[in-house]
Specification:
The complex is a heterodimer of chains A (336) and B (212). Chain A is mainly alpha-helical and 336 residues long. Chain A has 13 helices and six strands. Classes of the chains: A mainly alpha (336), B alpha/beta (212).
């Protein structure tokens, strides 16, 4: 039979033992004892790390210089494209050897790298592969200059494919997928988080600045995106227009003659309605996009601050799929 | 036999025209046409299925009073109608000049955005109208004055009255003014969902004054 007191006592003893052991372990790391040898070991370890780090960094920088020309080309090519969002090219994978600055390129990987999203570009792929082979030869070992040349060729080929793609109407689907990618990326970030993340803001702003006139195309389809029809002149000859004209004439007469008689109307109600109208007018203010406009420029004009482009972007969810794509003739809401 | 052969052709033309409409008004009606200010206007719904209301009519709450939820019935004899009846009204009554859609909101609201083919008679105009002014308005709407001076409403136009929606009492004020001078209740219809209901369905709207 279990003696309860005895059991509790044993449990207490176990806890006590554990706690005292813990205290001893903690106590063993007292500063007085560790200051001696521990400090020296720590300093030695730091020096060792610094040396290893320095040599590692120099090696890394040596290998990076070989890729420098490729990244420059990447920027140039993508800059020529109308609204490409810069993304790291996943296609070209260069294996680096740690010794010296020699690099090995796997030709099969280069083949993968040139693979275009559409199956129809296999011919282009073959030509790229040929040109790569001619530049590389069959030997896998190359000097940094050769690697740079190869990468430059590959990138130029990819640039031409993407340029021709932008002009071709067949590429609408790939564009859409790019849009969807960006939209998913944008939708993934909440408004609050966008505000906090200054790097993302800067990136978006850069995109807007880069887009400039290249992104602006003529478009007439957006005029009726809200299903609004502008009928500013009431010069209809039909009976309804005449009736409307007669009524509005009568109303304007009434306004002048019955201003004093309006005491019966609840003035506060009318005043509240007028306030609502002001709110509505502020929300319904629009601008028409002109040549050379960007959201940033429009925001600067409307609010005096480029960063307010987000306000315009959020006020036009149906018209603007991306903040860097606006078109001439678009009517954008500019809430006050 | 020839007629039988031509029938599918015409049918294909009709159906082919409306086949691109994703968001129809009803299963049978993809869109409708009406004249507004002398211009032919196509009444359809916004085809973007991801579209959402973003402007003032997306508001859920306004101070009550004065913007309180309105009762369905303004008067026991005044019909309540909705969007389909309004479209039907446009085609049956407005296009044949036997009916008018009245926007009872203030002029500034009307100018910003309204329902196609609607004309504006602001509610204070009717609410404050004396007998003479009411007579002038009614005459425009088709009322005749008999020799003995009585008002004859036989050929008066049917009116479909709307304002901002269920939170708006302007239609009620307008109707009260009309009923004060015995405008026949059977000639009045109340579109209670109003402009907000119209906007909610993404139906075509008319802008008389664009804010730039």
């Amino acid at each position: 039979m279990l003696d309860k007191d005895q059991y509790n006592q044993e449990e207490y003893n176990n806890y006590y033992q554990q706690e005292t052991q813990g205290a001893e372990i903690k106590g063993s790391a007292s500063p007085k004892e560790s200051n001696g040898k521990g400090g020296i070991f720590a300093i030695l370890a730091l020096i060792l790390l610094a040396i290893v780090g320095y040599f590692g960094y120099t090696q890394f920088m040596g290998s990076q210089t070989n890729d420098a020309c490729a990244t420059e080309d990447e920027i140039k090519i993508e800059g020529n494209q109308p609204i490409e969002v810069k993304q790291p090219e996943p296609s070209v994978q260069v294996e680096k050897e740690t010794k010296h600055s020699e690099l090995t390129i796997d030709i099969s990987q280069l083949k993968d790298a040139v693979e275009a999203p559409e199956p129809s570009t296999q011919v282009k792929e073959a030509t790229v592969q040929e040109s790569v082979k001619s530049a590389v030869g069959t030997d896998a070992k190359m000097s940094p200059e050769e690697i740079a040349k190869v990468v430059q060729m590959v990138m130029s080929q990819m640039g031409t494919t993407s340029q021709s793609d932008t002009t071709a109407s067949v590429n609408k689907e790939s564009k859409k997928s790019q849009d969807n990618e960006l939209m998913s990326a944008l939708s993934g970030t909440d408004v609050d988080s966008v505000k906090e993340d200054s790097s993302l803001e800067q990136a978006l702003l850069n995109q807007i600045d880069e887009s400039k006139e290249t992104t602006i195309q003529t478009s007439s389809a957006t005029v009726n995106s809200y299903n609004k029809v502008n009928v500013e002149d009431n010069s209809g000859e039909d009976e309804l227009s005449k009736l409307s004209g007669q009524i509005s004439e009568l109303i304007s007469e009434k306004k002048t003659t019955e201003q004093t008689n309006s005491s019966t109307v609840d003035k506060t109600y009318t005043e509240n309605l007028e306030k609502e109208v002001v709110t509505r007018e502020n929300e319904m203010r629009i601008i028409i996009v002109k040549k050379g406009d960007t959201l940033g420029k429009i925001a600067k004009r409307a609010y005096g601050n480029v960063m307010e482009f987000k306000k315009i972007y959020q006020a036009n969810p149906d018209i603007l799929n991306r903040p860097d794509r606006i078109y001439i003739g678009q009517k954008l809401r500019i809430p006050k | 036999m020839k007629k039988l052969l031509l029938l599918p052709l015409f049918a294909s033309l009709v159906w082919g025209d409306s086949s691109h409409v994703i968001v129809k008004i009803t299963n049978e009606i993809p869109y409708a046409y009406i004249t507004d200010s002398g211009k032919k206007v196509k009444i359809e719904r916004i085809q973007d299925t991801s579209n959402r209301i973003t402007d003032d009519y997306s508001k859920t709450s306004r101070p009550c009073p004065p913007f309180c939820i309105q009762p369905t019935k303004i008067h026991p004899n005044i019909k309540n109608i909705a969007e389909l009846e309004i479209i039907q009204f446009m085609q049956d009554k407005v296009s044949t000049n036997t009916g008018v859609i009245i926007d009872a909101r203030l002029k500034s609201w009307f100018e910003l955005e309204t329902i196609p083919s609607a004309i504006n008679i602001p509610f204070p105009v009717m609410q404050n109208a004396n007998r003479k002014k009411a007579e002038m308005i009614f005459k425009i709407l088709g009322m005749r004055i008999e020799k003995d001076g009585t008002w004859n409403f036989d050929r008066v136009k049917e009116l479909a009255v709307f304002c901002n929606g269920v939170w708006c009492e302007q239609s009620a004020h307008f109707m009260t003014g009309m009923l004060k001078y015995n405008y026949p209740t059977e000639k009045l219809s109340y579109y209670r969902s109003g402009f907000q209901g119209w906007k909610l369905l993404g139906l075509t709207t008319i802008v008389h004054k664009e804010i730039k």
